[in-house]
Amino acid sequence: MKVTEVPGIAGAFLFEPTPYADERGFFCRTFDADVVRSVGLDPNAFVQDSVSHSVRGVLRGLHLRSGAGEAKLVRCSYGRIFDVVVDLRPDSPTYLGRAFFELSGETQTTLYIPAGCAHGFQALTETADTSYRIDRPHDPTEDVTIAFDDPELAIPWPLPVTSMSQRDREAPSLAEVLKQQEG
To answer: Which stretches does the entry tag as region Disordered (predicted)?
Structure first.
């Protein structure tokens, strides 16, 4: 498994497995505690696994957790997604940095997103399954959402949005969220 640091987001990593392919399809390891440990992360810190199933054009995000935040490993297990990370850690050397990825079921690449970063994605294929491994139990009172179309972020979403949650549709701007976090 190859590990690379994500340019533009301090402390974020891409974990790229080496699939073994033959006439049956492929097999690959998508999580390896030793590899995770090799970049200074605690593999035992992850306490919850979740999955989302989306159809083409669905947009989820931009989400993060207040308080201690939430670190996560994100992988598209089927289909393809356009994935976005925004660094909202004021003391980070990449504060307000953005990074964009295409994650797919073909590559099974996993993205590590540090606590304090916002995350969102859009499904690029007719169906896309996205898996999450999260380091804290979910607490809905800590949910924070930022407008996906905030002009300050200028995220180049590749498709028209076909569907999103009401919470995402009504999300405040980045400036409003940052002001709330300061106060």
So the answer is: 163-183
C-alpha R_g of the chain: 16
- DSSP annotation of 171 reads P
Question: What phi and psi, each to the nearest 5 degrees, are found at residue 168?
Answer: -70, -40
- Show me where the domains of the chain are located: 2-182
Name residue 181's beta-bridge partners.
none
Considering the candidates 53, 119, 132, 138, report the single residue annotated as catalytic. Answer: 132
119 is catalytic: no
Q: What is the pLDDT of residues 61-113, one digit of tens each?
A: 999 999 889 999 999 999 999 999 999 999 999 999 999 999 999 999 999 99
Q: Please identify which residue in the block is written with the tokens 């931009």.
A: 62
Task: Phi first, then psi: give them for residue 38, nearest 5 degrees.
Answer: -65, -20
- Of 63, 78, 112, 138, the catalytic one is 63
Token pair, residue 56, equals: 């083409």
Active site residue 138: no
What is the rounded CA–CA span in Å between residue 94 and residue 87? 7
